[in-house]
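User: Design a sequence. Structure:
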């Protein structure tokens, strides 16, 4: 359960610190089991396909999902030009008459 996925040996100054780390690791292990049980076979197959598509790229699945969500948000947060122009006109009403005429 190390960040690299490889076995790692930890050292602690106090036994209490080691016991606290054991409890943390056990909780992570148990939570992983519960979260995996919630995965449907369709989602597992979809995740496997996503990993296959990402195999040739130096990017993680979570990074790819994050970028896709950011792109989706950008595309769906835009305003129609008419609405944007109305907002601009409302904002420049505070400016001088010369500025508004231009």
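Assistant: Done.
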């Amino acid at each position: 359960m190390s960040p690299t996925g490889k076995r790692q040996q930890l050292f602690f100054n106090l036994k209490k610190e080691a016991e606290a780390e054991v409890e943390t690791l056990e909780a992570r292990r148990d939570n992983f089991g519960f979260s995996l049980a919630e995965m449907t076979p369709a989602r597992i197959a979809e995740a496997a396909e996503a990993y296959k598509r990402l195999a040739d790229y130096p990017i993680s699945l979570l990074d790819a999902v994050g970028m896709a969500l950011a792109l989706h948000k950008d595309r769906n947060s835009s305003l129609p030009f008419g609405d944007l122009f109305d907002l601009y006109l409302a904002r420049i009403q505070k400016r001088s008459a010369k500025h508004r005429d231009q």
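The two ends are 65 Å apart (CA to CA). The CA atoms of residues 42 and 48 lie 10 Å apart.
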